[in-house]
Specification:
2 helices
Length: about 90
């Protein structure tokens, strides 16, 4: 009986993890609606340039484009490793 309890608990754990991951993906896709077509390419190219100087993960860069009136603001956030952690 304990084995069945363990399996049920593990299934609940993995289901909640899968749900959280799906929520993150959906939120990411929603945030990209209305963005120009060049944004994914811009993000890849910026990541390549940053990697010339320091090694960062794919998810270390976050780019957003906000528009108000006749002005667009490109916001770039990069999570860099601490000094001495490699790179």
């Amino acid at each position: 009986m304990k084995l069945l309890d363990f399996l049920k608990r593990e299934r609940k754990k993995s289901a909640s993890v899968a749900k959280e991951r799906l929520q993150i993906i959906v939120a990411h896709q929603r945030s990209q609606r209305g963005q120009p077509d060049y944004m994914p390419m811009l993000e890849r190219e910026l990541l390549e340039v940053i990697r010339r100087y320091v090694q960062v993960d794919d998810d270390a860069i976050n780019i957003s484009l906000d528009s108000e009136d006749n002005c667009s603001v490109l916001e770039l956030n990069v999570t860099l490793p601490r000094a001495g952690d490699g790179g």
